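Worked example 3 (structure in, sequence out).
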């Protein structure tokens, strides 16, 4: 702890009393915003009375006087209407007019994933702790790498990639469904099913107890499709081998 971190008079912090982490006085009637909300109070426009230097020493938590705090205003119909209008502005796509249950990102100019331009930048931010997803559908445009560890709740992940891309999916119990035109498709799962009704030059599927179903297009069969499908206890269904006189047919390995 630095000497200037303990500054009850505020001499080194612009006249604001400053205390290290867990060193703030408990008998002066001070509380943070969160503590005030737990008491049903709000700061009520009062100035900062003191501040606490957070554990890492890079941020401050402000303290306010409890005796100057005011009760939290009760929610009214007018406030609920104004809040709903504000949320609707952030949740409604200006292109298609559909309102979602979440706020649309400002990086895509407020558009939904389906209406956002392909050149829209994508930003990610790592946050500590666990993210609990109760269920729903998540769609990713533009490809890239999507890593998610899911629990028991049903979650559908949709990855939209350009035509001719190579995709790889690894799951524990989730199913893999690949539809479209791909250069290569690789699916690895323990108990999930693998289905590929689209077109791919190369197809690889490894599963322990799941089923594998591949329905190659006529073009794929004429282009000598290479398939590798393995399942220990599941069913494997792939296009039948062509006769020698009608074409080479897909090269396939099943087990």
């Amino acid at each position: 702890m630095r000497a200037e971190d303990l500054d009850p008079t505020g001499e080194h912090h612009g006249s604001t009393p400053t205390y290290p982490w867990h060193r703030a006085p408990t008998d002066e009637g001070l509380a943070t915003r969160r503590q005030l909300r737990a008491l049903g109070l709000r700061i009520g426009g009062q100035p900062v009375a003191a501040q606490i230097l957070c554990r890492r020493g890079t941020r401050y938590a402000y303290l306010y006087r409890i005796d100057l705090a005011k009760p939290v205003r009760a929610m009214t119909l007018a406030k609920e209407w104004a809040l709903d209008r504000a949320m609707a502005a952030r949740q409604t796509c200006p292109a298609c007019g559909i309102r979602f249950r979440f706020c649309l990102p400002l990086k895509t100019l407020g558009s939904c994933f389906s209406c956002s331009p392909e050149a829209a930048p994508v930003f990610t931010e790592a946050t500590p702790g666990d993210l609990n997803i109760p269920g729903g559908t998540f769609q990713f445009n533009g490809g890239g790498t999507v890593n998610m560890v899911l629990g028991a709740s049903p979650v559908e992940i949709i990855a939209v990639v350009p035509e001719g891309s190579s995709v790889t999916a690894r799951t524990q119990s989730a199913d893999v469904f690949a539809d479209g035109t791909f250069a290569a498709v690789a699916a690895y799962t323990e108990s999930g099913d693998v289905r590929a009704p689209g077109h791919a030059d190369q197809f690889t599927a490894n599963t322990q107890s799941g089923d594998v179903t591949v329905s190659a297009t006529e073009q794929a069969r004429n282009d000598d499709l290479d398939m590798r499908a393995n399942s220990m206890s599941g069913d494997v269904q792939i296009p039948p081998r062509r006769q020698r006189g009608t074409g080479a047919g897909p090269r396939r390995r099943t087990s």
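Notes: Residues 119-127, 244-254 have pLDDT under 50 and may be disordered. The chain has three domains: 3-71, 74-117, 137-144+157-255.
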